[in-house]
């Protein structure tokens, strides 16, 4: 169905995927559409951040391959915090290869993502069948990037959305625009005080992504983990995001 002018509230979204349903359940219960991106490089920083922001997020987005001292002890501890504070573990691996290689990257190697992640990101660039290897997780397809000069133009986005809509593993997409109601929309590139960085990142406000793009979940990295008080910043983003979401329903 084509995107509508009026947005559908989270509880009205027809999401089939169990992980998508879980995200919506957490969002409504916690009054949060916030996903914190924990782009820190040590286990201790990551665990501290998870403790501080856990009550205020529906998922913690990870780049496990940037963690210097990665171990499954870290994963075990994160799982405990995630269970207690009710959020999902979202590995932002951005898979972008043929199905067979992605399956190896997903299940094997150092990180064994398949053993612990609730959600993963993947580029749909290799086509629908390549995404079938991601079993038992929710796939978020990257259909449009936030950075200046990205190659994800309108033609690519249309084709990528098509792949996403036809893949049962895909619960939603990362994009900077409104998408069909059957998909959950995740939008990174959100910051309350900055317009961008010197490496191509571009930021919008929570207000803009909820009202103009009808996003379902905003992803905030440096706005939270680089702030003086991560917990206070998480609350600030949670409140700004949830209020903008509620206002966007009218
Ligand atoms: O288009 C994108 C897609 C993603 S998943 N743009 C992004 O910035 N991201 C990720 O969101 C990026 O990898 C990083 O982990 C986070 C944004 O971090 P921030 O510090 O710029 O808020």
From TrEMBL:
Catalyzes the transfer of a ribosyl phosphate group from 5-phosphoribose 1-diphosphate to orotate, leading to the formation of orotidine monophosphate (OMP). Residues 33-237 form the Orotidine 5'-phosphate decarboxylase domain. This is Orotate phosphoribosyltransferase. The active site is at residues 92, 94, 97. It catalyses: orotidine 5'-phosphate + diphosphate = orotate + 5-phospho-alpha-D-ribose 1-diphosphate. One of its GO terms (biological process) is 'de novo' pyrimidine nucleobase biosynthetic process. Homodimer. GO terms for molecular function: magnesium ion binding; orotate phosphoribosyltransferase activity; orotidine-5'-phosphate decarboxylase activity. It comes from Moheibacter sediminis. Substrate binds at residues 39, 61, 146, 201, 221-222. Coiled coil: none annotated. It comes from the Bacteria. Its cofactor is Mg(2+). Pathway: Pyrimidine metabolism; UMP biosynthesis via de novo pathway; UMP from orotate: step 2/2; Pyrimidine metabolism; UMP biosynthesis via de novo pathway; UMP from orotate: step 1/2. The chain holds residues 200 to 449 of 449 of the full protein. Its EC number is 2.4.2.10. Keywords: Decarboxylase, Glycosyltransferase, Lyase, Magnesium, Multifunctional enzyme, Pyrimidine biosynthesis, Transferase. In the C-terminal section; belongs to the OMP decarboxylase family. Belongs to the purine/pyrimidine phosphoribosyltransferase family. PyrE subfamily.
């Amino acid at each position: 169905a084509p995107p509508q002018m009026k947005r559908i509230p989270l509880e009205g979204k027809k999401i089939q995927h169990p992980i998508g349903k879980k995200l919506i359940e957490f969002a409504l219960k916690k009054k949060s559409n916030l996903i914190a991106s924990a782009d820190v490089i040590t286990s201790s920083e990551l665990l501290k951040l998870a403790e501080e922001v856990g009550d205020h997020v529906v998922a913690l987005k990870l780049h496990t391959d940037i963690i210097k001292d990665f171990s499954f002890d870290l994963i075990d501890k994160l799982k405990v915090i995630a269970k207690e504070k009710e959020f999902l573990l979202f590995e932002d691996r951005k898979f972008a290869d043929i199905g067979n290689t992605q399956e190896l990257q997903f299940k094997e190697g150092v990180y064994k993502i398949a053993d612990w992640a609730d959600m993963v990101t993947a580029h749909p660039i290799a086509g629908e069948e390549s995404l079938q290897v991601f079993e038992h997780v929710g796939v978020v397809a990257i259909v449009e990037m936030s950075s200046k000069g990205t190659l994800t133009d309108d033609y690519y986005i249309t084709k990528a959305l098509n792949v996403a809509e036809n893949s049962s593993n895909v619960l939603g997409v990362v994009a900077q625009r409104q998408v069909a109601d059957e998909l959950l929309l995740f939008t990174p590139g959100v910051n309350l005080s900055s317009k961008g960085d010197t490496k191509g990142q571009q930021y919008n406000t929570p207000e803009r992504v909820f009202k103009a793009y009808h996003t379902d979940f905003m992803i905030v990295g440096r706005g939270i983990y680089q702030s003086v008080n991560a917990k206070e910043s998480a609350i600030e983003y949670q409140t700004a995001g949830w209020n903008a979401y509620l206002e966007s329903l009218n």
